[in-house]
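Batch queue: ligand-bound targets. Current item pairs a single chain with pyridoxal-5'-phosphate. No template structures supplied; prediction is de novo from sequence plus SMILES. Inputs echoed for audit trail.
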Amino acid sequence: MSTAAKDLDAFWMPFTANRDFKSKPRVISGASGHHYTTEDGRRLYDTFSGLWTSGVGHCHPKIVEAVQKQVASLDYCMTFQVTNNKAIELAHRVTSMAPAGIDHCFFTNSGSESVDTALKIALGYHRARGEGNRTRLIGRERGYHGVNFGGMSVGGILPNRKAFSANLIPGVDHIRHTHDIERNAFTRGLPKHGAELADDLTRLCALHDGSNIAAVIVEPIAGSTGVLPPPVGYLERLREICDTHGIVLIFDEVIAAFGRLGTGYGAQRFGVTPDIITTAKGLTNGVIPMGAVLVRDSIYDAFMQGPENMIELFHGYTYSGHPVAAAAGLATMDVYDEEGIFEQSRNLEQQFEDLLHSFADHKHVIDVRNYGLMGAIEMSPRPGAPGARGGEAHKKCFWDENLVVRNGMDILQFSPFLNSNPDEMEASFAAVRRVLDSIE
Ligand SMILES: Cc1ncc(COP(=O)(O)O)c(C=O)c1O
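Prediction returned. Tokens below.
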């Protein structure tokens, strides 16, 4: 038995069927570029860029070097009351790429922490302006905002909420999701139908009174639920309704930021500017855990009042702005710029779309969705066994085709490298087709 497999029992794996997994573990021990390697020397192509994280490829030499240097020169420095040069530099870097008026950045260690930070900032902002009655938070059905109590509560994915139903934070409501397979199946890019679903927010404003709502949080394009691009006009409509009622609009861009949609932030691709943007993943290419919450100036300014010797926001993490993570972030931003990664990502979109939609005729497939370099192939569930077909496809890809493919139930999700090699991308989809052909 390999070292990794022998020790596995102690490891309670996240979002994994532990017993099933441990009966035949899939253990990775190395990575380089677009491939993983296993202890027994197999080489697997990664169709998911880590977990939507590693857009420029694994072990990018420039990021590796920056991390190695940093850990040997300043390994840790708190950012409470003193700070470090790398965190300052990275805050400047990520805000200078952001839409105009979003010039402040709060560091976290993950997407979940970015979301809970954003919710707290929105609540604190209203309170600082004397509107402390604005306490209600609105999420969306099928939304994924991580696993902490705030993010889980505004999230809308049933299995993530079910066991904690009585413990979700109070004062949360949800607008309807935008998935409409009847009208929009097999749409390439943004679906035509459904902008009116944003008006569900107006319904909640009528129910609770808009003056009681602090914030609305949505993924501008839903990812983890199985890639649901927003209908044409939907995000614009949400923005309008938030403006009408003075509600803070939060885009959760933990997936959408940093090139996945061919731009620095999804907001820029969609041409809709929220008040707060949450990020993580591509901030450091997944190399060191880190998140960042980008905040509109008017929100930051609202906190900057009262006695100057007082802390304005009682919030922060031991590792907020960790210098090694920040060094990884800076090197990642350099790679994005120097290698024209966002442009490369845009140039791959058409091929990616065509490859995904070539599955439209497959007997198991009931929908294909894509936008930017995010895509999903949705299969019909096996009667009485939802998720079985997707799970089997994942395992067959791994064992028979040397391919890492992510499935969420019966939806195969794809997040190709932003600098994918077109031939490798094509070969990976040919392998996926062989697998789908081979399963019942
Ligand atoms: C939109 C969104 N928000 C939040 C998260 C949570 O991020 P993390 O797993 O880093 O806590 C994710 C993770 O996939 C995500 O996709």
